[in-house]
Amino acid sequence: MSVPTPRIPSTASEGPMSYAIFQLARAHRARAAAMLRKMDLHPGQELLLMQLLDRDGQTQSELLDSVGLDHSTVSKSLRRMQEAGLLVREPAEHDRRVMVVHLTDKGRAMRESLAAMWRALEETSARNLSAQQAESFVRIAYAIADAISSSALPQEESE
User: What would the DSSP string read from start to end of 72-100?
Assistant: First the structure.
C-alpha cells in the first residue's frame, strides 16, 4: 500500500526526518485526543492515571517527574481530574505543604478502558507496518529521543 507523501515546505526540506516526526506526533496526538475525549479525559491525563495505576499515592512532584510535563499543566490536570472524581489530593503526613495524590474507585476503574484505548491506538499506528518494522521503529524512536534529550541546543553549543 502506498502512503501519500505530504507536501513538505521548502524550509523543512533541510530537516525531512524532523518534519516527519512533527507530522507523526501531530497525527498521533490528534487521534489520541479524540479517543480520550470519548473517555471524558484530556490529553496528558491518561499519563497521570497510568502512573497512579502503577503506584498510587505519589506526590505531585513525583508525578511531574514521571510524565515530563510542566508544573502548571500537571496542576491543572490534577485539579480537573479531582473535580471529575478520579482522584483526591491531600497533604502528606510528613509535610503538609506536599500534596499526595490517590486514585478514587472511579479512577481505578479506568484501568481497562485506558489499556483498551492504548491497544487500539497501537493497532491503528502500526497498521501498515510489519512486526519487525514496528519493533525497529520503537528502537529508533527511543534512540532519537535520547539523542535530542542529551544534546545542547545549537545556541548553547556555540556559546
Answer: HHHHHHHHHHHHTTSEEEEE-SS-TTSEE
DSSP string computed for 9-60 = PGGGGG-HHHHHHHHHHHHHHHHHHHHHHTTT--TTHHHHHHHHHHSSSEEH
Chain centroid, CA 91 distance in Å: 26
* Mean pLDDT computed over 134-150: 95
What pLDDT digit, counting tens, does each position of 60-95 carry? 999 999 998 888 999 999 999 999 999 999 998 888
In whole angstroms, give the CA distance from residue 159 to residue 146.
Answer: 23
Instruction: Tell me the three cell numbers of residue 43.
Output: 490529553
CA distance 109 to 87: 11
Provide the whole-model pTM.
Answer: 0.83
Closest CA to 46 of 13, 6, 81: 81
Q: Which residues contact residue 31 at a Cβ distance below 8 angstroms, ignoring those fewer than 6 apart?
A: 121, 124, 125
Comparing C-alpha atoms, which of 9, 22, 14, 82 is closest to residue 48? 82
